Amino acid sequence: MKKDSLGIVHTQYLTFAEPPDTLQLKSGRSIGPVTLAYETYGKLNANKSNAILVCHALSGDAHAAGISKDDKTPGWWDNMIGPGKALDTDLYFVICSNVIGGCKGSTGPSSINPETQKPYALDFPLITIADMVEAQRHLIDSFGIEKLLCVIGGSMGGMQALQWASVYPERIIAAIPIATALKHSPQQIAFNEVMRQSIMADSVWREGYYYEHGQPENGLAVARMIGHITYMSDLSMEEKFSRKLKNENLSFQFKDDFEVEGYLRYRGYNFVKRFDANSYLYITKAIDYFDLSGEKFMSAVKKTAVRFLVISFKSDWLYPAHQSQDIVRLLKRKHAYTTYFDLISTYGHDAFLIETDDETRLIKNFLANVSPD
């Protein structure tokens, strides 16, 4: 086993908001009981001051690092979490949970509704990034952790990091939002709406009540194909595919003649094996609802002691650098200690999962100067 490997890891589960308690949601509705799937890496120190919360992106889950006991797959950020890595598990206790509304162990639309003993489907309430963070707060409380050393995440994970800083500034020392935004632009909402419509236009979707029949694989695959295009850059697609053909000659049929077509089909139809279509609808809607712009961010705080490291990538056109710069400007107005880097990369939005060398250097140096005191 490699020295920097975490080896086999186990997913754990926390259930809270059991009757008569419920989790109150921003929509005005409530839900309970609520289960969160989570994994931890490293050890929590005696005074519980070394905890770092990792927040995942749209299609992520609790399995951020190590090798899954169940399917032997590495975590989605395994290159960033472990001994000697950016989030050094020799120093820090790292926690990652699957968001509510998800489909990888946490309560979501595919979970059983205790009132009907059937999957919630569209009876599940609409959730927000704020609701995801409130559920995470219950998880953090279960460890007896009063203050997190850091909250970190990319894309939707970065939104959760910002939400933590905005709502619970007294409970975190630092935040690292990566490749994210304070709110979605009309273009970003438009992409999500097209993806949602592709799912809902699939006849197998059955208005969301498809669990007894099988999920809308074609619609979900197309949604993922659309999403995956936005995660790459024009340059990265040129370097990876250009106009390469799968075979020597064009088929003159509606087949995947080009390698890029075959790649997108593979990504789309592989995705349906591990993700629930309704969860895709709910989570993209939560992202679109997110808005911490202007006075909404830290509305009760004029000056914050939370320290921030904000990272963007020059080739990211889904969450372009100017949106990270908007975050930095807002943080400056709150007199926050803020460090910002716009990293050179050709990978587009996916860079936050790939450019681990630069991220490791920045995050290690930043965390070295973050003290629990």
Q: What is the general shape?
A: globular
The CATH class of the largest domain turns out to be Alpha Beta
Can you list the strand order of the major beta sheet?
Answer: 2-5-10-6-13-14-15-16
Structural class: alpha/beta
Task: Give the full name of the CATH homologous superfamily of the largest domain.
Answer: Alpha/Beta hydrolase fold, catalytic domain
InterPro entries: AB_hydrolase_1, AB_hydrolase_fold, HAT_MetX-like
Subunit structure: Homodimer.
GO molecular function, one term: homoserine O-acetyltransferase activity
Pfam families: Abhydrolase_1
Descriptive report:
The chain has 373 residues and is α/β, with parallel strands linked by helices. Helices cover 32% and strands 18% of the residues. It has two domains: 8-182 and 292-368, Rossmann fold; 188-286, Orthogonal Bundle (Rna Polymerase Sigma Factor, Chain: A). The chain contains ten helices and 16 strands. An eight-stranded mixed sheet has the order 2-5-10-6-13-14-15-16, with helices on both faces. A two-stranded parallel ribbon has the order 1-7. A two-stranded antiparallel sheet has the order 3-4. α3 (186-200) packs antiparallel against α4 and α4 crosses α6 (259-271). It is globular, with a radius of gyration of 20 Å. The mean pLDDT is 96.
